[in-house]
Amino acid sequence: MNMAISVAQSRQQLSALIAAAQHQPQVITNRNTPVAVLVSADYFARSEAAVKPATEGFYSQLLPLREAIAPQDDIGLTGPEQAPRAAAWQRTNAFTDSV
Question: pLDDT by residue (tens digit) across 41-69?
């Protein structure tokens, strides 16, 4: 388990804090409230690498789906060459396209 250290103590013992962070994350507190965590560069790189593929995977799947089923009545998604249709609440009869 990592120990919490105050901001003031962390200033005085920065070298020791950095050395301890090589083994496990170190919590820095301000008035007994956690405000930061010091981790080793290796730990940080592994954490970023673990998160990055999940995020990229989501967006790589989302973009083709968005292009495939983009609504035809939204000028922002289909481009300026197509005029947007009136929204259902703007139509005289919401069940037909006649205005």
Answer: 999 998 887 777 666 677 777 778 777 77
